[in-house]
Amino acid sequence: MNRRIEPKLPRQNLTGGMALVSLLVLAAMALFGPSGLLSWSENRRLLDQRQQEVKALVGERNELRNRVALLDPHNTDTDLAGELLRKDLNVIHPDEMVMLLD
Questions:
Q1: 79 to each of 1, 70, 86, how far by Cα in Å?
Q2: Helical spans, DSSP H, in 8-77
Q3: Residues 36, 30: contact at Cβ < 8 Å?
Q4: Cα separation, 69 vs 62, whole angstroms
């Protein structure tokens, strides 16, 4: 009944230590990494911010589409054409009066 305890080899200690270090690195990345648990709230905030930006840009794009449709060469909106002439080329009729509003 004499049990003999064999000492661990240095190679076994090294293997176990490397496994422990790799598990700790994986756990740290799962918590603190760029897609870890702690960065989810930041990613959610950025997603909400970008969605607001997309909504604003979609509205601006729709306004520009409408403006382009009004400038169709075959069916130009006369009010818009007159507005653009006055604004871009400073073209006015002699009997028109310009009022500047602040």
A1: 108, 10, 11
A2: 10-32, 40-70
A3: yes
A4: 10
| Residue 67 tokens, joined | 């403006």
- Specify the pLDDT at position 1: 58
**pLDDT tens digit string along 56-71?**
999 999 999 998 888 8
Query: pTM of this prediction?
Result: 0.51
Residues 6+ apart with CB under 8 A from 30: 36, 37
Q: Which residue has the tokens 């003999």?
A: 4
Give Cα 9 distance to the centre of its chain: 54
Identify residue 71 by its one-letter amino acid code.
Answer: L
Report the alpha-carbon distance of residue 70 to residue 12 in Å, rounded: 79
Q: Report how far residue 102's alpha carbon sits from residue 91's, in angstroms, rounded to the nearest whole number.
A: 21
Query: What amino acid is encoded at 74 in this protein?
Result: H
The first and second tokens of residue 78, run together, are: 């006369």
Query: Could you say which DSSP state residue 39 is in?
Result: G
